[in-house]
Amino acid sequence: MDPRKSEKIAFFILRFCGLIVVLPLVMILVFLIVKGLPGISLEFLMHGPKMGLREGGIFPAIVGTVLLVALAIIIALPLGLACAIYMNEYARDNWFTRLIRLSIVNLAGVPSVVFGLFGLGLFVIFLKFGASVLSGAITLAFLILPVVITASEEALLSVPQSFREAALALGSTRLQTIKTIVLPNALPGVLTGAILGISRAAGETAPILFTVAAFYLPHLPRSVFDQVMALPYHLYIISTQVPGVPEEVKYGTALVLVVLVFSLNLAAIIVRNRIRKRRAW
Amino acid sequence: MNSNNVLTTEISVKSLDIHYGDFQALNNVSIEIPKNRITALIGPSGCGKSTFLRTLNRMNDLIKNVRIGGEVLFEGKSVLGPEVDVVELRKRIGMVFQKPNPFPMSIFNNVAYGPRIHRLAASRSELEETVERSLRAAALWEEVRDKLKQSALALSGGQQQRLCIARLLAVKPDVLLMDEPCSALDPIATLRIEELMQSLKDRYTIIIVTHNMQQAARVSNLTAFFLNGEIIEHGATDVIFTKPRIKQTEDYITGRFG
Predict the structure, then answer these.
(1) Contacts for B172 with CB less than 8 Å, ≥ 6 apart
(2) Which residues in chain A have their CB less than 8 angstroms from residue B57's CB?
(3) To which H or E segment does residue A75 belong?
(4) What is the CATH superfamily name and number for domain A59-278?
(5) What is the pLDDT of residues A121-175, one digit of tens each?
(6) Which residue of B has its CA nearest to A93?
(7) Domains of chain B
(8) pLDDT tens digits for B48-61?
(9) What is the ipTM for the molecules in this complex?
(10) Which residues from A are below 8 Å from B91, CB to CB?
(11) Contact assignment for A171 to B59 by CB distance below 8 Å
(12) Is the pTM of this model over 0.95?
């Protein structure tokens, strides 16, 4: 065939593949907006469910999810960042760092329902935290740890070695170099990782299934040892466990969850782009 | 002791060997570096000059699988060995790198970095004095006095390199190690750095690695010629460049290889 012709055909096919990738996302969004938007109102967002979850709102589930992911990231970020700093700034390539890296890769590959079972066994039963915000948040923290560590390590790696050399040659200790030079320049990248971790945690159902999520709770949690409702689990039960829930309540709940996750991802992208623009090296 | 004829030894290197894994980077290097003079290290790429330089302030510590033998004395005390206070050593033996590497912060904060981490200034005004004095000593003050709060990364390459020198002077070192400080700069910026070196040598001991023969001849009092990890010949610069004793030195400085 004429090479110019095959070039055109190849270009067309590749472009088509690109379109196929975009299409499902757009379809999901349009579908959710069309079906869910009528269900969304101030009442829906600000009040609890009524009439056996068939009416009312999803306020407790929103609060529960926000609470869970906030606590999860408060646990995962310091731990993950410290781990990344240890591997990238202090430890050399040895058996221990290789073990950590292997653990991270495998941790990322563990199915989320296994995290749920693990959380049930360790936090709920063995440590006697019960089904609670604390159990759920720690379980979610383990789930997002790989994301946080990987993003933190990338952020640390992106800080030029010449900055570290300059600081060390001026007589800073490694800790001073990390505090004054490395972390300030890595922070935006670390935050991007944190936001991606939050959005991952917000959407997960399986890890909270056995560790925290409540079918229905008329009140908001009073401590980290209380159960909460959470958006993904609430969506699961009104879709499968409760008969006669109106369509717009189901799709409205889904829309709120998706918008929450998307806006977190969007925030991560905006933060990342702002760093790229500001970065002059 | 520091009259023109009598040279005090600042750094004394005896039988220094350095291996990176199986590769021998330096082999039995011995040299005395005199105080308040400019010593140039010349030689082809990969001959060990930079390795030598980075041994003096222990920057080789950052590289793994490095083995060091022999002795390096700074003011009579060993700089090798695990018991040496590397922070104190690097404070007194500062380094300027090949590529200007100012921190991504303001000009002021760059120069104030060292005094801050070493707590050299008791007050804000003292810190400001130190910054001004260092920038003046690095011949940069007049150009940046009105934009101290601006990012150092907005400066030209030559200005950035002088800023790095100012940043170094602010921690009050005794020795300045310069690792090809002009290789990333244009001829005019290079000339300014060379003038600066001349103005600094009364107060500092300077060791400069350079690939530029004219630069070594122009700025240095002493020259050491490195080849394959060994010092082939060293001595007064005018002697090395006019009457080298060894054929390889002559071949290198006349541009026949390297």
Answers:
(1) B91, B120
(2) 169
(3) helix A59-85
(4) MetI-like (1.10.3720.10)
(5) 999 999 999 889 999 999 999 999 999 999 999 999 999 999 999 999 999 999 9
(6) B64
(7) 9-253 (3.40.50.300)
(8) 999 999 999 999 87
(9) 0.90
(10) 170-171
(11) no
(12) no
